[in-house]
Amino acid sequence: MSGEAGLATPFSERAGRALRDTFLQEALGIATTKFIGLRREAFDGFPAGEALRDQARAIKEATLQRLDVHLGRLADNIERLGGHVHWADTAEEAREIVLKLCRDKGVRMAVKSKSMATEEIDLNEALERAGVTPVETDLGEYIIQLAHERPSHIIAPAIHKTKGQVAELISAVAGKPLPADPEALTAAARVLLREKFLEADMGITGANFAVAETGTVVLVTNEGNGRMVTTLPRIHVAVMGIEKVIPSMTDLVVFLALLARSATGQKLSSYTTLVRGPRQAGELEGPDEFHLILMDGGRSRQIAGTLREALYCLRCGACLNVCPVYRQIGGHAYGHTYPGPIGILLTAMLKGDRSVKELAHASTLCGACKDVCPVRIDIPRMLVDLRESLDREKIAPASERVVFKIFRRLLMSETAFRLSAAIGRVAQRPFVSEGKLRRLPLFFGQWTATRDLPPIAARTFRERWKDLA
Amino acid sequence: MATRADFLGRIRAEVSKTPGRFEAQTATRRKTIQDSIVQQVDDARESSAGVNLDEEMTNMLSYQHAYNAAAKFLSTVDSTIDSLIGMVR
Predict the structure, then answer these.
(1) pTM of the model
(2) How far from A301 is each of A89, A206, A297, CA to CA, in Å?
(3) What is the complex's ipTM, to 2 decimals?
């Protein structure tokens, strides 16, 4: 199933299906709650964390202001080491570059380490069509690939799967029944994947960071598969968005201190892989060829755009775990590569505002995402801006625009506001029970179908203030 | 495929469109934040290794009180013995 396949149905339907899926609800509840706790503990024991978050944000701001210079330096350093740098304006171009490399070098099988950038360009489907077998080697991604699905979380792709479901998938490949025991399943997957590493001609990765000063591509993983993918096959291809470049190794330290803590609550991930070009003379490990694909795909437009801050994102997934919407519906209901609060913004960046006309409202604007973001991205603010521009460009449904137009009129005039409050106070009477609005007529009923609304107070604040003052 | 010159040229054009305040703001902000991190680390070091005048003064006062009390005790013992000897005589 492609990530876009779900888009035939409206968002409300996709979300509704997720809410009724009891397996999904169980898996999501357990996993997100665990992640929230781990992250909180990690930052509680790390007093420098808050200042480092400011520092990380400032580095991202400054890097964007000289993005062309840093990318140029990164490319120079990689070429100096004997690597190749490719420039891709669009997702299609990035895909085409990989396919051309496969054709030119006679690649039959490619092992992949977890990468959202390659999900973004639908690389696996393109490889299969071209006769190249892609094999995901991150355990979560491997499970997802076996199930023919897409990741539902940025860092935990199979977060929506239960142990039992995973056992079924791996048993089918292993050709024997396996127990629903994570340890046994991991061991089985390890054996299956080990052969693939040795067979593959190409290793494909993303990049968590790329250090301009040294030409180093940095991969943050927990399974060590990233290291095998970058060393065993004869060709290594890394695909990265242009915003992943950072100026120096000193900056890398700041980001590494925050990334794993925000994502999984670890001080550092189990493996931090630093790759510099192809194997050099005298080195024992590494590929014969190294290719870096720098991808724009709509990113550069936002350097001076309203979604600029979304370019600071480290893809830690912390905002997904705390989001009351994500926690209920999971990643697939969003229908795009990047789910959750940041995913809405990234989708708007990569595919245009029109693609998120429903998703822009899939947020309560509670601000939990902003609180946990390692680089303090103001997600709620940008979602409000997005809603406004959807309204201005008349992309939002007509009914919604009319309601908001009326609402705005009421709020802009004091008389109209007071009058409507007075009318509402009388009109609500038949619907108030036990101090709550429990059931409303007409389309207002959509709100009260799943939650109560507090009634308009009998006396306004201004009236009460007269007595108090 | 895009060429390096075109690719970076477009990014440069976008960067030049951003409000001018960003460049200066980010430089000063990074310094302010760096200073606060240094301060925080210094404080942490001081709190475990350094001399805290308030704490030392409190300690000194309590030692002084202890010394005074001990001295008072000795002088009381001394005068008691004196009185005892006087009674015996």
Answers:
(1) 0.83
(2) 11, 22, 9
(3) 0.83
